[in-house]
Write a structure and sequence with these properties.
The chain is α/β, with parallel strands linked by helices. The chain has eight helices and ten strands.
């Protein structure tokens, strides 16, 4: 059945909602690993660059834009690929502790990367291009590195993008952590209806907007699906540095191992 295109009113409401959404996502400064942890992670990983298109839905004039080059790092050398997509306003370093831990199992090759406009990635921060960049990271793992089994794990906006991209490309599973249901123009609540692979939704009970989104995901998503709600209000990758850090790390790893 064909889906109706969004009405002008719906698009206008999304445009009005985006500044509020972005403001909400940036109210609290995210927890960041210490310089020592970052240095150790970088010494135990290898840098890569990923070319991303300016847009997957080009408009007139976009063909003249320079390609976007994303900065990334690879951890480990296991047979299964895992892509960790960061939240806003954090960057890929927020994933370094878990990427290191996951790679040490020997079962996974883990890719972190900076969305466009973050750190050494080129271009400007364009939040309507997060799915474009995540797709480029996926294609890099699949085509350049040869992985056939790839999981998407995303925090906040990275989780919204993971749900949407997971319906467009073959993935082994998706982990969504504190993801907004809608991150304009991405509508993950609508997309999750078509996400048939195993999926795990994680949030904090007092991270109110995202806990509400998780309820919507759970109601809309088909099986197989799993969820965890932790006490507190830690958001996204901050959960990996919260009092529940060990539980969250173990839960995500168990999900990956199981699928």
């Amino acid at each position: 059945m064909a889906r109706r295109a969004p009405s002008r009113l719906a698009l206008a409401l999304c445009a009005l909602a985006l500044p509020l959404l972005l403001a909400a996502c940036s109210e609290a400064k995210p927890a960041t690993p210490s310089p020592e942890v970052i240095e150790t992670a970088e010494s135990g990983s290898r840098p890569v660059t990923i070319q991303s298109t300016y847009s997957t839905t080009p408009e007139k004039g976009d063909e003249d834009k320079e390609p976007i080059v994303l900065s990334g790092r690879l951890f480990g050398s296991g047979p299964t690929g895992v892509i960790l997509a960061h939240m806003r306003p954090a960057d890929q370093t927020a994933w370094f502790p878990y990427a290191t831990q996951l790679a040490q199992t020997g079962r996974y090759t883990v890719l972190t990367f900076d969305f466009r406009g973050y750190n050494d990635s080129t271009g400007d921060k364009q939040f309507d291009r997060v799915d474009t960049d995540l797709t480029a990271a996926y294609e890099y793992m699949r085509d350049a590195l040869g992985f056939r089994k790839i999981f998407l794990v995303g925090a906040s906006m990275g989780g919204t993008a993971s749900i949407v991209v997971g319906t467009r490309v073959p993935v082994a599973g998706v982990v969504s952590i504190s993801s907004p249901g809608v991150f304009p123009p991405l509508d993950a609540v609508e997309a999750v209806k078509d996400l048939t692979v195993p999926k795990l939704f994680i949030t904090s009970k007092d991270d109110v907007p995202q806990e509400k989104s998780q309820e919507e995901f759970w109601a809309a998503a088909p099986d197989p699906k799993e969820q965890e709600v932790y006490d507190g209000d830690a958001h996204g990758t901050d959960l990996f540095q919260s009092p529940h850090a060990d539980e969250v790390s173990a839960r995500v790893t168990a999900f990956l191992d199981a699928h």
